[in-house]
Amino acid sequence: MKNQFKNIALIAVFAILITSCSKKNDAPADQEVKTEQNDKVLAYIKSLGFTDGQIVSSGDRYVVDGDMVFDKNMEVPADNGQPKTEQYYNGYLVTAANNIRVKVDPSITSMAAEIDAAILQWNNVPNSKIKFVLTTGSTYDILIKVDNTIGSSTCGQAYLSTSNGKAGSVVWINQELIKNNSFAQRTRTITHEFGHTISFKHTNQSTSIDVPGVGGTDASSLMNGGQCGSGATVLSTKDKQATAALYPL
């Protein structure tokens, strides 16, 4: 009987050791998979024309050039993000561009007027089918919300449009940072971030690819980066031309 109990005890200890070893061995494998995924996303971001100096790791996301956001667990496009045409953009257009549903999170309802004004700017671009529409339903394309923790000099952040034809899903606004800006500048921040959700990169980014027929730099572009609280407050002529080129009626 003693031998039987001893054997059972040995089997139990052996089982625990096997389980413990398995857990220890699984951790590096999980980390290896995570590292491989991160490397793929980094390669994708760089394929869009961004440099190492523009890419910052922030938790489970990469923040690029100050306000463009990529999830580290995102599905990397099969073509690795190579642009399909020329533009100041990421190569992917929103399929249902004439009905981009925006939901306003309760955290930012105090900026409803600025959101309305930003939407009006994009919706009024001549010869373009872009149309943002507000919704209160559970089905939406973009959620706009407050995040006062995104940086001491970052007015807002947003996801870029995706390879599956969807708009960038979230816009974050640093309401605390911009609360003392003029109405026009607060609207500018929101208009700019909406631009990212429909594929636009920063016009003054040296690695950007020109829009067909609308190339070159543009000091008046609302999509210039690094101008939090001081940039253009209305879409420039070239901004509008680029929008119409990507999203023609």
Structure overview:
- The chain has 249 residues and is of the alpha/beta class.
- It has one domain: Collagenase (Catalytic Domain) (3-Layer(aba) Sandwich).
- 35% of the residues lie in helices and 14% in strands.
- The chain starts with a helix and ends with a helix.
Secondary structure layout:
Layout: H1 2-47, E1 55-58, E2 61-64, E3 68-71, E4 100-104, H2 112-123, E5 132-135, E6 142-146, E7 156-159, E8 170-173, H3 175-178, H4 183-197, H5 237-246
Parallel strand pairs: 3-7, 4-5, 4-6, 6-8
Antiparallel strand pairs: 1-2, 2-3, 7-8
The ordered string of helix (H) and strand (E) elements is HEEEEHEEEEHHH
Structural class: alpha/beta
Q: Could you report the average pLDDT, rounded to the nearest whole number?
A: 83
Q: State the distance separating the first and last CA atoms.
A: 87 Å
Strand content: 5-15%
Q: Would you identify the CATH H-level superfamily?
A: Collagenase (Catalytic Domain)
CATH fold type: Collagenase (Catalytic Domain)
Known CATH architecture: 3-Layer(aba) Sandwich
Spatial ordering of strands, largest sheet: 1-2-3-7-8-6-4-5
The number of distinct structural domains comes to 1
Count of extended strands: 8
CATH class: Alpha Beta
Pfam family, one: Peptidase_M57
Protein name: Dual-action HEIGH metallo-peptidase
GO molecular function, one term: metallopeptidase activity
InterPro entries: MetalloPept_cat_dom_sf, Peptidase_M10/M27/M57
